[in-house]
Amino acid sequence: xxxxxxxxxxxxxxxxxxxxxxxxxILLPTFLLILLGYGVSGDTTDVAIAVADLSKTDASRRxxxxxxxxxxxxxxxxxxxxxxxxxxxxHESISAGILIPENFGSNLSIGKPTxxxxxxxxxxxxxxxxTNLQLExxxxxxxxxxxxxxxTRSAGALGLSNLExxxxxxxxxxxxxxxxxxIYMIPxxxxxxxxxxxxxxxxxxxxxxxxxxxxxxxxxxxxxxxELVLGKILPYLAVGIFNxxxxxxxxxxxxxxxxxxxxxxxxxxxxxxxxxxxxxxxLISNISRTQMQAMYLAVGIVLIPAIIxxxxxxxxxxxxxxxxxxxxxxxxxxxxxxIRGIMVKGVGASFLWSSIQALxxxxxxYFAASVATFKKRL
Amino acid sequence: MNAYSNAVETSDLTCIxxxxxxxxxxxxxxxxxxxxGLLGPNxxxxxxxxxxxxxxxxxxxxxxxxxxxxxxxxxxEIKKQIGYMSQRFSLYDDLTAAENLNFYAAxxxxxxxxxKKRIQxxxxxxxxxxxENELTESLSGAWRQRLAxxxxxxxxxxxxxxxxxxxxxxxxxxxxxxxxIYEMAAEGISILATTxxxxxxxxxxxxxxxxxxxxxxxxxxxxxxxxxxxxLLQVTCADPLLGEKIAEKVPGVTDAxxxxxxxxxxxxxxxxxxTLQAAFSQAQNQIIDIELxxxxxxxxxxxxxxxxxxxxxxxxxxxx
Lengths: 378, 320
What we know:
The complex is a heterodimer of chains A (378) and B (320). Chain A is built from 15 helices and four strands. Chain A has 378 residues and is α/β, with parallel strands linked by helices. The relative contact order of chain A is 0.11. In chain B, helix 3 crosses helix 4 (112-125).
């Protein structure tokens, strides 16, 4: 036992002696979260559009206003033809265009149906989807209003005093009602930053001993494998807990994210997640001889799948079963549900029980496997 | 502690990696308090032998005991009682000399109450006084070597393994290092050292020469030199290169080799000398000086290897 603490003490010397290591370990996760947080928190506002208003009537101007009065769209170009819109789309100067035909105003005034043409840059499907949706929503709202106005006018002629839509839809979005993507993404990024940190630090700390030859010395000492591996992991567990709290503080105080649920429950579950990730780091170090191999294995086997398959950025519904189960094997997949549940929805442990169970099992298995399979060797 | 008369004893110690035999039926023993030198070129199996004795690699066949403990059954006990130092001087660069000592003392289980005094003693013993608070990375090769040795003996082991522990250190420091080793042997510590510096082998009580995974010679340095068949002449002549060619044709000459401006000629017996002198004067290659010299361990080793090569060659020819 005392030997384990000797390793722990030495490991802290390594961390605190070299200011570069210290900076990477302490500051980088927070810095990364700040950088990425600003990167993802930009919701699609002020999408640049071009408008070709060929009608040039009061009605057409009011119609365009429906789009510009929200902060979602911004008319960057007033143009005169379809070709000009297409040209601007080619140059990526705008994301969408609206063409209002010449007879728009005249048709509306006599109650005749008319049409409007939208153009959307579909090269990035996710942007195109949001833009489409927003355009459609605003357009149908505008149509509805115009229709109501027309009917009210004729209703007045018929002697009816007031006219209402037959069905009024009330939409209530629970959790994150403003649909701000940062509220959803920042908990995810926090998880990701912890994942990178915990995985790489242990893997490299162990392989470094092998590379610099000190493992050769440790192998001939009476230290037991578990004392060595626990001595290596514990300092980075402490670092992981520190990072968890630091990144959560950044999320709260810099990005203004309100942690709806229990802060300490989140810290506790993060610790379990970090423990599992540290275990994975040790497993990687078991099969790596050099720090470069460890780095590549960590990125290839864990980090890239953790970005793509965990539900961090892409929905896991509809994934083929191989990819789905690969994702299930990653602790971060379950931790994402937990951290989002606690931070965004504010639910307690009982609501997240199945994810907590999965996280616990995976973390314990990875951690136990890493300690059990770690053999001090050259 | 176990009662033992020989610090190390091996019987047919063998290590096979796949289809490569790294160590082939090696037998030797090291009496308590002696310095045993394992010599041989790189890849001869020296390091593998040491690693088996330290309990890092399990032998494929054969047995060995270290300090009376069976290396197969009591590797844990052995590790507590041996010191090990390799040519990599496995130290932590970002720790100070004293911190490295403290680290290894703790890992070797030196009780906390004794540790402080032990470390001060080690610093004095190895002459590191004044450097103890320097970061290890700022120490020169020779100081790092001393520190590595101090770390390896922090727990006062009765047996010390040195694997190429003097590689890459200047001759004066190597000399001082061996003085430390001698002192330790005088205190009753048994030592197994591998090296490929032949001059270092002279410090050893017994030498084992390894070549191609086998122990090809085992004796004291003097015995090895005396057992070298024939005699060795050192000749100073006008044209040593020409002299080499002349000598090789003289019957009774087994080998001739140019050593700088000198010529080393191995002969079967003294009768050959007049014939040799006659051949030189006939070729008008004036002999300035000729003397009988004591062969060095290097000569012994080269002779041993050539002998092996000859035997193997004959075996192969016989097989065809």
